[in-house]
Amino acid sequence: MQEDIAPYLNRLSNSVKERISAILIDEAAANVINEAFIFHFNDAASLDFQMYYVETISNRANFLGSERFFARFKKQYALQGIDNAYLDRLESEKLSIMSLVEQGDILKLYFDYFANAQIKHHDKSVSKNLGSFFSKFVHTFKPNDYCALDNPIKNYFGLKGESFYVAFLIVSNAYNNWVNEHSSIIDNIRTQLELDNIGKSFSPSFTNLKLLDLIFWYIANKLSKENPFNPELR
């Protein structure tokens, strides 16, 4: 059975890479990329978030030294349905959490803290999968390896039926492989970023995976707003 898993994941990863190429290997790609950067660095809410992102990305000292890191993280990433007791638990176990990140044991991190989080809902506790929270947290400290996946991007890449953890690995793998195979294109994308008067100051803090996230977040969310009744985009 195990020999069937890798080909399955590779096939999905290749499918994501094809979708990336369909957008970024095209004469119109420059327009899409430019639109995304104009939005991210001119929309007040997005620009505020990018500033927060730069403040926290790969910043171990900030993570361990902040008294309310997870509460602010939740707010900035607009993560829903998470109560203060759960955030307090994460806050109290920062050293263990960071140890798992630094060891590269994201599977244990996922199952210990995010796969079945106990969240207070009204007067009872419910088990909730916090895959989106997990992906964004892992990206914060492993920004060259993993993407900050959210549901619009997950669905855009045809992974709506996959678990969040599996989709996170698939898209992260696809992003990394695509970047390695198209270094000249990703260099051109970074050049476009650095031509933006505001965006250029963010370039040193933005990994190649972050650049792809910026573009496909914009595309996926734009499509979702234009087609609000299409279940594949929600």
Features:
68% helix; 234 residues; mainly alpha; 4% strand; globular; 13 helices; two-stranded antiparallel sheet; disordered C terminus
Give a description of the structure.
The protein is mostly helical. The chain has 13 helices and 2 strands. It has helices at 2-24, 29-42, 44-56, 60-65, 69-76, 84-92, 94-103, 106-114, 131-141, 151-156, 164-181, 183-195, 208-226, and strands spanning 117-121, 124-128. Strands 1-2 form a two-stranded antiparallel ribbon. Helix 8 (106-114) packs across helix 9. The longest helix has 23 residues, at 2-24. The two termini are 32 Å apart. The model is unreliable at 228-234 (pLDDT under 50).
Structural class: mainly alpha
Q: Count all strands and give the number.
A: 2
* Distance separating the two termini: 32 Å
Helix-strand topology string? HHHHHHHHEEHHHHH
Short description:
The chain has helices spanning 2-24, 29-42, 44-56, 60-65, 69-76, 84-92, 94-103, 106-114, 131-141, 151-156, 164-181, 183-195, 208-226, and strands spanning 117-121, 124-128. The chain is mostly helical. It is globular.
Write the layout of secondary structure elements.
Layout (H helix, E strand, L loop, with lengths): L1 H23 L4 H14 L1 H13 L3 H6 L3 H8 L7 H9 L1 H10 L2 H9 L2 E5 L2 E5 L2 H11 L9 H6 L7 H18 L1 H13 L12 H19 L8
Antiparallel strand pairs: 1-2
Helix pairs in contact: 1-11, 2-3, 2-13, 7-8, 8-9
